Amino acid sequence: MKTETKPQIRHNVPLLDLKEQYATIRDEVQSALAAVFDSQQFIFGPQLQALEQEIAAYCGTRFGIGVGSGTDALLLSLRALGVGPGDEVIVPAFTFFATAECVSLLGATPVFADIQLSTFTLDPESVAAKLSPRTRAIIPVHLYGQAADMNPLLELARKHKLHMVEDNAQALGATYHGQRTGAMADAGCISFYPTKNLGAWGDGGMVVTNSEAVAQRLRSLRDHGSAHKYLSQEVGWNSRLDEIQSAVLRVKLRHLDEWNRQRRSHAAAYDSQLRGVAGLVTPQLGGWGDHVFHQYTIRVPHRDAVQKVLSARGISTAIYYPVPLHLQPAYASLHYQPGDLPQSERASAEVLSLPVFAEITDAQITSVSDALRESLAR
Ligand SMILES: Cc1ncc(COP(=O)(O)O)c(C=O)c1O
What we know:
Layout: H1 18-39, H2 46-59, E1 63-67, H3 70-80, E2 88-92, H4 98-105, E3 109-113, E4 115-116, E5 121-122, H5 124-130, E6 135-138, H6 150-159, E7 163-167, E8 175-176, E9 179-180, E10 187-191, E11 205-209, H7 212-221, E12 226-228, E13 231-232, H8 243-274, E14 296-299, H9 303-312, H10 342-350, E15 351-354, H11 362-377
Parallel strand pairs: 2-3, 2-6, 6-7, 7-10
Antiparallel strand pairs: 1-11, 4-5, 8-9, 10-11, 12-13, 14-15
Helix pairs in contact: 1-8, 2-8, 3-4, 8-11
């Protein structure tokens, strides 16, 4: 295809518009925040306590433990499960860097497995091929808002006595055979980064778990290893979810199912408008539950050129993620080579995420679809 752009109609379609979302919840959030300001209690207060219970109930788990970010949720969960130096943890090569980074920060080694290109999630066969006597845990990632195929992964974990931590940063509200993501393994890690389907007004995260022991350990680790004030049982960390973020999140949680429903409906609109476009692959459903479309991610050949054409027309898109983790400079010392994990590498070369936020209009979806169709017909 040619990449030059003739003068074209310019649309204005952002990838995400948080101001539009704010307009729909402004009064609710402002009154919730006013209550926090009046209380002048900012850390470990009633908002966090309530949010932890509400998120745990939403996910169908016994416990929720608020922490400072999704990254901390992963790091502290792995630590609570005893992952440390000498251990190997299997992670998908196609995910955000934090998934593997937390493994490395604990002195363990991330072992990269491939994904299934159809769903962009961890391939159980590739995981099975990567098992070694040092494997301690597996981290499936529910990428873009769709659950990984958990049953075969849980079976592998059971058979080989491995821990499992779900990276649920992108998929709060998604389901797998009727269960909410995050509730199926030893721990489920949520990110409340502002752009997430349930986004805070800053950083935030939470771990959900059914294990009382894991919950207790996490409560200690997030607060300097102390179960009691000024008495540290171990070296922990400071990773807390504050009252302001908790209050905002509690308001937004009441809207999450509706926002996720709207995202699904926008995804269906894209599916029908993009059906049959040569060379373009729309997101595939695994058939095991609800997708919450944190991203609506297509695959296209000549992806970078297509993105340029859309950008020239005022349409924002994103590439999550252009370099798979096994080929990141930070992991050069692990000596992976191009070709080692072909599905992850192909995904990195072809993926393009289109705007799919809850408030996007039908007209904007049509503009994106038309521009995409035209860019591929050139
Ligand atoms: C798959 C995945 N894992 C982990 C994280 C880390 O979350 P946070 O940015 O809240 O630390 C993110 C968020 O960007 C993510 O998308």
